[in-house]
Amino acid sequence: MAVSAAAKVQEVREITRIERIGAHSHIRGLGLDDSLEARHVSQGMVGQVAARRAAGIVLQMVRDGRIAGRAVLLAGQPGTGKTAIATGLAQALGHDTPFTSMAGSEIYSLEMSKTEALIQAIRKSIGVRIKEESEIIEGEVVEVQIERPASGVGTKVGKLILKSTDMETVYDLGGKMIDSILKEKVQSGDVITIDKATGKISRLGRSFTRARDYDATGQQTRFVQCPEGELQKRKEVVHTVTLHEIDVINSRTHGFLALFSGDTGEIKPEVREQINGKVAEWREEGKAEIIPGVLFIDEVHMLDIECFSYLNRALENEMSPIVIMATNRGITRIRGTNYQSPHGIPLDLLDRMIIVPTVPYDEKELKEILSIRCEEEDVQLEDKALEILTKICTETSLRYAIQLITTAGLIARKRKAPEVGIEDVKKAYMLFYDESRSIQYLTDYQKQFMFDHGDDAASMDTT
Amino acid sequence: MIDWLTILKNAKKTCIQQGNLRKVHFLLPDGREMVEEYNMETGVVTRRAWKVKTNVGGEGEWHIEVGDPEPTFKTEDILIKENSSQPFVSRRITRKNLEWRIRNLPYSIDVYSVTVDPESRHLIVRTSNRKYFKILNIPELERLNLLAEQNRIQMFHKFNTLVINYEKPKQLIDFEKALFDEVKTIKACKEGDMDCKPS
Question: Which of A155, A197, A269, B187 is surrounded by the most beta carbons within 10 Å?
């Protein structure tokens, strides 16, 4: 009894670990119809019709894959859905198109130069579809055993028993494989294939022999025959690798030196040159297909002048992806110089971009977004409370109001109420300050704080 | 089609002698690489390995065709592999026979059946309790374009191991002899020899 309860707790923890709610996890696409016209509320996206329509056209451009090295700038105030549009675009592109998301400040590292980080990001956004002979394990799951160490920390041990009509084999599972088996919710009776090299699991269906416990399965469950013959087969599969992955495979040091080199760090330009040549050759022979993807650089004003001038050059390469950038800055200093420029981006780069503006949401849209977030966070809100929250939203900011959903939800749960009422929102509003009230508080009580500069604070440099 | 012996004769060969073992590296005209290890006293191949290259590039791994497999140290980044208690096949070549040893097979001899598929030159190992199934190919026969024959097969079971013997046909014995004569003529460098004189 105790054992089964413990197992249940473990299971719940496992699921919550996988399905955490992020700032943009309610977004499932761009919310466009077939003619790329934006629906007002769809796939978690609300309003911002013009910007989404523009993103839809960019999506079409990426899917066609003919245009290389275009840059798109999403510009708008904080909290107007720039990152949401980029996330939606990534969702709409699907699994097979590479989408790399990075923040402008990510390129600063002691391990590699700024341009190297940029090249790697660019090459991560170009996919190559290539046929490769691969070892495939195909069979019916007899049993999945995953054991955690009693202490709760350390590596998990996993075993998987698979069978075909002619044989049965026990496999040991590595940590990554255990995670993906848990994620795919593989259970006994499933017929699955596993790519031995990449560890990719695909579920073919349920075995016919398990057809009698059909009421435990969903309606769309497919029933398939148990595979015959050997469990392990060699099959030709098409998979997508990014140019960066090919770079890494070909630049790894061999022999005993490989023991000492952890990460690959910088990759030699000669290796890249050689790989570009090889990929071009494959493409001509029809062996491979190039899938240009999308590189999304958030907070692009954090790049400095060297990166911008490098981008100028990189975008001219025919192997470069579509680069989408987002910024919330107005006319400001370009990092690394003393020059002012719109969005903190040099004019020559701005000239090469198409700029998509995002506009502040109106009250109706804010309400819509708040109710979508409530659903995502599983918080029931009274109509009155939603109205109050929308009011708060227009007066403070969207992000603050979204924070209040979670906190007010917790307050309501404390008093065991099924729905969040006005009092809960009020209480949360009083407990947690928004930005403007915090500033008000500071100006009121600044004398009592340490290291206070008094009146100088007003002229503080906030860049 | 050029026969296998000519291909091997035309291959670029590098050779090293260690005791009574002679290791020969063949670089075939089509870019494939093979390494054979000969016991110079018996003239029998003790190990043979092929380099398997992927399309994406990289160094590639050695696939052991005959002889004991290389020990592997990679344990951290394994995704999925057979449990060590599961059956595995290793191959040997003796003077008269091609030999397969399938270890970790605990069932008694009457469970197994080995049939030959002459066209595809495969040995098919089946178990009547449906616990093990394996298709073994015979690369030696494939290379010489010989057909496989059922009556050349013998098998026995001992110490949890199923041993399958396939008696070599005359053509194969002749080919191996010719190749061994060729191997004997290659100039081998001794272990410790260097290409250049260090100062």
Answer: A197
What does the pLDDT read at residue A407? Answer: 92
A117: DSSP letter: H
The DSSP annotation for B51-76 comes to EE--TT-S--EEEEEEBPPPP----T
Pairing label, strands A223-224, A201-207: parallel
Number of H helices, E strands in chain A: 14, 17
Our CA-based measurement puts residue A230 at a distance from the nearest CA of chain B, in whole angstroms, of: 6
Share of chain B above pLDDT 90, in %: 45
Classify domain A41-128+251-357 by CATH number. Answer: 3.40.50.300
At position B63, the amino acid (one-letter code) is H
Residue B75 has a pLDDT of: 55
CB burial class (10 A; 0-12, 13-18, 19+) of residue A25? middle
Rounded distance between C-alpha atoms, residue A245 and residue A126, angstroms = 10
DSSP structure string for A363-376: HHHHHHHHHHHHHH
How big is the A-B interface in CB pairs under 8 Å? 80
Q: Which residues of B touch A177 (CB under 8 A)?
A: 79-80
For residue range A361-389, list pLDDT tens digits in order.
Answer: 988 899 999 989 888 888 888 899 999 99
3-state secondary structure of B35: strand
* CATH tag, A363-446: 1.10.8.60
pTM for the full predicted model: 0.74
For the cut 60, the answer to whether the pLDDT of residue B2 exceeds it is yes
Is residue B84 helix, strand or coil? coil
Q: Which of B181, B142, B180, B157 is nearest to B37 (CA)?
A: B180
User: Strand order in B112-117's β-sheet?
Assistant: B112-117, B122-127, B133-137
Order of all β-strands in the sheet with A71-75: A99-103, A294-298, A322-327, A71-75, A353-357
Is CATH 2.60.40.790 the right assignment for the domain spanning B4-67+85-190? yes
- Tell me the pLDDT band of B92, cut-offs 50, 70 and 90: very high
- Segments making up each domain of chain A, as ranges: 41-128+251-357, 132-237, 363-446
Specify whether the CB–CB gap between A384 and A416 falls below 8 A: no
Residues of B in contact with A275 (CB under 8 A): 57
Q: How far apart are alpha carbons B28 and A191 in whole angstroms?
A: 41
Count CB-CB contacts under 10 A for residue B148.
20
Which residue among A131, A165, A177 sits closest to B79, beta carbon to beta carbon?
A177
CATH number of A132-237: 2.40.50.360
Residue B80 β-bridge partners: A173
pLDDT above 70: residue B194: no
Which structure tokens are listed for A45? 């996206």
Say whether A172 and B83 touch across the interface (CB within 8 A): yes
| Alpha carbons A412 and A391: distance in angstroms, whole number | 20
Burial class (CB in 10 A: 0-12, 13-18, 19+), A9: exposed
pLDDT tens sequence across A255-277: 444 445 545 567 888 888 888 89
The shortest CB-CB distance from B58 to any of A165, A250, A287 is to A250
One-character DSSP codes across B87-121: -EEEEEE-SSEEEEEEES--S-GGGEEEEEETTTT
Alpha helices in A286-361 (DSSP H): 305-314, 347-351
* ipTM associated with this complex: 0.85
